[in-house]
Amino acid sequence: MVTIVGNIKPEDDYTHPLGPEDNFNESVYFNFFDRESNRGGFIRIGNRANEGYAEMTVIVFNSDGSVFFNYKKPEISNNDEWNAGGVRVQVLEPGERLRTTYDGTALYMLDPRDMKDPGKAFKSNPFKRIQLDLVHHGVGPLYGHVGEPGDGNDFARAHSEQHMRVEGTLSIEGEVSININGHGIRDHSWGPRFWQSVPSYRWITGNYGDDLGMVLSVVGDRRGGMFHKGTELLQIKDIELSTEYEQGTSFHKKLIADVTLENGDQHQVEGVVKGFIPLRNRRSEQVTYIGEGMTEYTLDGERKGYGLSEYLNQPGQEV
Fold first, then answer.
1. Does 244 map to a domain?
2. Are 96 and 24 spatial neighbours (Cβ–Cβ below 8 Å)?
3. Residue 103 to residue 99: CA distance in whole angstroms
4. Mean pLDDT, to the nearest integer, of 39-62?
């Protein structure tokens, strides 16, 4: 039986009644990393039914540094399920098991930094058909918070996360099907959502096995997140984060985080980005830049883990 922390419930894994806000969003996100094959990625779908579309993103990092990527805004008319643009998310057992699938094409980039200019990237790189079929099993506590309407939160009023074990297959056009066995994290948010409502954040997630996972969160001046150690959830009190960027860019390539937990434990997390793609989100005339890095972590100089380091910046806030 899953351990729950916060005021969420297992049935919150399903979609919720559509809110009145024009920008009501209900999104689910699942990342996955197989350290043996040095592959990973994520699937995200966000229903914006009041605006008539969903946001769908699929990324697969390959061991040679290349990336498969696709982003679509397929039309939807309701918030009954996550099933659009080739992505489908099914709740098999609330709080315990979920399934994600993608069947469609993806842009194949030998140099993912081409995505600095999306128009050029889509014209100068080929598409390949890929199929992902993954089952995500909860290995850490399910935790989160459901806020109240009118609380002023325009990013993630209701939100939950859980570390997962992942198994399934990745099929690539013209190649043999690849088994995926690893770990990741899932994230579920519902309520009004503007990507432009925060000046910047660093969201650093990783798993070191079934028994240990982390989320490090730096949002403006706020520091937070958690470590799960078995079924125990320990909040982070403070983070000192330093980042090394690729020269002349805001693309992060290494990080060191000194972390203090609520029980006084201290840890050092060193991260080395193994695969990277720069993305952007445009809403009207506002553009948000998001750097996605498949990252290998070393905890306290010893234990290895894998996950995603995501750096979001608004214009003028890149580094």
1. yes
2. no
3. 13
4. 97
Lowest-confidence region among 89-93, 126-130, 246-250, 254-258: 246-250
Beta bridge partners of 3: none
**Cβ-contact 210, 219 below 8 angstroms:** no
Specify the CATH number for the domain of residue 162: 2.40.370.10
* Cα–Cα distance, 289 to 316 (Å, whole number): 10
Q: What angle do CA 305, 290, 51 make, to 5 degrees?
A: 120
Range of the domain at 118: 4-313
Total residues belonging to the chain: 319
- 254, 272 in Cβ contact below 8 A? yes
70 in any annotated domain: yes
- Please report, in angstroms and rounded to a whole number, the separation of the first and last CA atoms in the chain: 43
Q: Which helix (H) or strand (E) holds 193?
A: none
- Residue 229 has what pLDDT? 95
Domain count for the chain, please give it.
Answer: 1
H/E stretch holding 58 reads: strand 53-61
28, 188 Cβ separation under 8 angstroms? yes
Spatial separation of the C-alpha atoms in residues 93 and 250, rounded to whole Å: 40
pLDDT in tens, 124-155: 999 999 999 999 999 999 999 987 655 554 55
Residues 288, 280 contacting (CB under 8 angstroms):
yes
At 77, list the tokens: 């008319």
Read off the amino acid at residue 222.
R
Say how far apart CA 314 and CA 303 lie, in whole Å. Answer: 34
**pLDDT for residue 183:** 98
Contact 146, 188 (CB under 8 A): no
- Is 274 domain-assigned? yes
